[in-house]
Amino acid sequence: MTASEPSEPMIRMQSVEKHFGPLHVLKDVNLEVPRGQVVVVLGPSGSGKSTLCRAVNRLEPIDSGVIEIDGKPLPAEGKELARLRAEVGMVFQSFNLFAHKTILENVTLAPVKVRGTSQAEARKTGLELLERVGIASQSEKYPAQLSGGQQQRAAIARALAMRPKVMLFDEPTSALDPEMVQEVLDVMTGLAGEGMTMLVVTHEMGFARKAANRVVFMADGEIVEDTVPDKFFTAPESARARDFLGKILTH
């Protein structure tokens, strides 16, 4: 993967602050994610990782600061925000699939309703995406008939169906049984290899080492380190990161 020529970063966060009541969850966060890069956010529970990820498409409104997607400030609400969310794919810890719709219907719903894609085109693209994530044979099944790993791959296909400019992943494997984690990470690694801009909150150190261009380490609402994976895993600069890696990598 090579970073594309210098241009506006796909995601830019500047001086971002966020409180939940007295809890200061994001403290002066400054982060840029260039086009085509995979940035993995690591850190202990309660460090602000998920809040940071959810702030990018305004699922969590911020108290102050600036967030830009593709050079444009994040709209506060209304149609402009809906338009932006259509360009920012999000995959959550829970799969959030519609239980009463088939997997293919889950994938085709938003392109038809939001983008005005024809049913035939949405179906064709939907089947291609299900093929890409390895579950085309499950297209007519309902979510409850699939394993957790298959459901999460369907959720990734659903996000990709909107042809997003950037993909956000908030702990996409944490609700999965261990044997299903790798099948989801393989799909994500494939996307990274294709040059999809990605911001990934995860505990999966192997994915961070293999697929990330950069690792951002958060603690207590602050970005403590922002560096390349090799340097982070072999020579972290902060005591917080060393402590975190010591606990994670010895388990």
TrEMBL record:
Belongs to the ABC transporter superfamily. The keyword Cell membrane applies. The keyword ATP-binding applies. It is a peripheral membrane protein. This is ABC-type polar-amino-acid transporter. It is an enzyme of class 7 (translocase). Keywords: Amino-acid transport, ATP-binding, Cell membrane, Membrane, Nucleotide-binding, Transport. GO terms for molecular function: ATP binding; ATP hydrolysis activity; ATPase-coupled polar amino acid-transporter activity. It comes from the Bacteria. Its EC number is 7.4.2.1. InterPro entries: AAA+_ATPase, ABC_ATPase_HisP-typ, ABC_transporter-like_ATP-bd, ABC_transporter-like_CS, MetN_ABC_transporter-like, P-loop_NTPase. SUPFAM superfamilies: P-loop containing nucleoside triphosphate hydrolases. It catalyses: a polar amino acid(out) + ATP + H2O = a polar amino acid(in) + ADP + phosphate + H(+). PANTHER family: AMINO ACID IMPORT ATP-BINDING PROTEIN, GLUTAMATE_ASPARTATE IMPORT ATP-BINDING PROTEIN GLTL. Residues 11-245 form the ABC transporter domain. It holds the Pfam family ABC_tran. It is found in: Cell membrane. GO terms for cellular component: plasma membrane.
